[in-house]
Design goal:
Blueprint (H helix, E strand, L loop, with lengths): L1 E6 L13 H16 L3 E4 L13 H10 L5 E4 L2 E2 L5 H14 L4 E6 L4 H7 L6 H17 L3 E4 L4 E5 L13 E3 L4 H9 L3 E2 L7 H18 L7 E8 L3 H25 L29 E3 L1 H15 L3 E7 L5 H14 L6
Parallel strand pairs: 1-2, 1-12, 2-3, 3-5, 4-5, 5-8, 8-9, 10-11, 10-12
Antiparallel strand pairs: 6-7
Helix pairs in contact: 1-10, 2-3, 3-5, 6-7
Length: 343
Amino acid sequence: MKFGLLFAFQTPPQSGIPWNEPYRDMLECLPRAEDLGYVSSFQVSHHAQKDGLCPGPLVAVAGAASVTKTMRVGTGVLLVCLYAPLKLAEDVAVLDNLSQGRFVFGVAPGYVSEEFAAHGIPREQRTRRFEEALDLMTRAWTEERFSFEGDFYRVPDTQLTPKPMQAPHPPLWYGVSAKSSLRRAVKRRAVQIMSPRHGIAELKEHYQIYEDAAREEGWEIPERPLIRQVFVANTKTEAEKLAAPGVNYLFTELYGAASAAGDRVLRSDDGSVITDATQVSFDTFKDRYIIGDPDFAIEQIRRYEAEVDPSEMICWMHMPGIRGEIAMRSVELFANEVMPHFS
């Protein structure tokens, strides 16, 4: 199994962390992480959030590309519906060339109501806009000249240059979980990147749908990346003390709030649906993040190997409110004490 890192650049209110600090932390972390054996760096993205959760993931990816040499750099994931698709296709092509063909385009239609309202996009159109935008972008990347006439987007005869360095275009990773979306991912030959908001039982359900669709299409799934909140320290008590506030914040303010608003269901480890963000606690989702000492991390990752067989675990260590130097200690300890067991 390979390992990567995830960044969201969140600074919770009253944390005292300035907006720029998480970006500096990433730029300082990545060259060392690359030397330690991490193979990828991904950027979370949401919009209209109170804590600075990154609304400009392509810019952040460009920063990551500038301080690394071999790592894949990508979005995990970008909310396509909130962008003009031809301009997005241009930016992706430039970024793929800038990174020398290391870019992975992780995408999703989105689900948080306030994001769509802020951008003036009807939320009920998100899935159709998402797929139509990807159709447009794929043509722009792969055809010398093209025109496009869709329900939402229209482009007269034109061309896109430069073309992406990767042919036919950067790999598409879908961040979705609905049955129909998983099947559409297969139709597009897109890798499924599994969200940290889902427990192992849900992951297995999603993989089953995805794998069945791939078999029907005669397509062999090339990768099985998985995002998890991960944090290690010398003792489990220390790790939980340092990381629990960040995990609680994520599951309360983002996933729990969205579930309470009816945007997207979040289930606790016992299977019950979160209908109020106050239902969230560190123990509510303890089965889906890996926070402890190195031995605990090794045990949990072996469990994931046995249950869902991921090809890559993308570790969200720089969680909200965790200072860069503290997150970096986890990055180092994990690389030295955990990763060698999975090489």
